[in-house]
Amino acid sequence: MTIDVKLAETTAIVAIDRTEKLNALDYSTIDELSAWLDTASTDDSIRSVIITGAGDRAFSAGADISCLAETIGSGIPRALQDIVFRGQGLTKRIEQFPKPVIAAVNGLAYGGGCEIVEAAHLAVAAEHATFAKPEVSLGFPPPFGGSQRLPRHIGRKRALEMILTGDPIGARRAYEIGLVNHVVPASEVLKAASDLAIRVERHAPTAVHACLAAVTRGINLPIDEGLGVEAAWFATTVPTAGVRRGIDEFLNRGEGVPG
Q1: What angle do CA 185, 187, 188 make, to 5 degrees?
Q2: Which position among 32, 95, 135, 230 bears the catalytic label?
Q3: This prediction's pTM
Q4: For residue 42, is pLDDT > 60?
Q5: Helix, strand or coil, per DSSP, at residue 151
Q6: Set 115, 201, 225, 249: catalytic member
Q7: Would you say 122 and 67 are in contact if contact means Cβ atoms under 8 Å apart?
Q8: Averaged pLDDT score across all residues of the chain
Q9: Reduced to 3 states, what is the DSSP secondary structure of residue 63?
Q10: Is 176 a catalytic site residue?
Q11: Could you give the CA distance from residue 33 to residue 155 in angstroms, rounded to a whole number?
């Protein structure tokens, strides 16, 4: 097993556990994490997911280069299947997960590790965390979705500086450009991620899912198409108990604002 899963009430904490490799993502780790996400997506006892790295040095150093070297040596078809499609499959699962996924970045997040952060819905970073896109130094572009998600999230020029230079940035810079939501002392990174999960979990699961889906689906569409996505997901919540409860609670409080 290369992931360690613990349940803290309704929040699942998933640690990538290959400390001897700085939590690098070999094929079995990617497959194990993908399979767990598939199962957790329909487990009603889990309301949110925190992904972190074992130890205090690394969230994940990215793809395991020894695996990549062997696969790339076998030619293009196998390289696409084993590296690109596998890695993109994982980050797509995270991005489209129906419950909040929070990255708790407890150290370096390079390559595929950074791409997991990009795909996660929310992210908290330890003060000593660093982020980098070093794939260019290996001769290829980011293969787990990073060449597409990062520019959409932080802007084309900022993303290209990271992608083209491969140089790392610190946690504060990651916060400034919108790659992470919060920066906290290392000892508080899991607590901060858990507190963020609790703030989301207080709302109806149907509402949270609709919000996630509307943003994830609509963010890359023209605004008119995105508004159609918003309307469709709003419609899914109209008959739910979450709407009835939320409106009743608001009306019973009297005048004010939701919250």
Answers
A1: 70
A2: 135
A3: 0.95
A4: yes
A5: helix
A6: 115
A7: no
A8: 96
A9: strand
A10: no
A11: 29
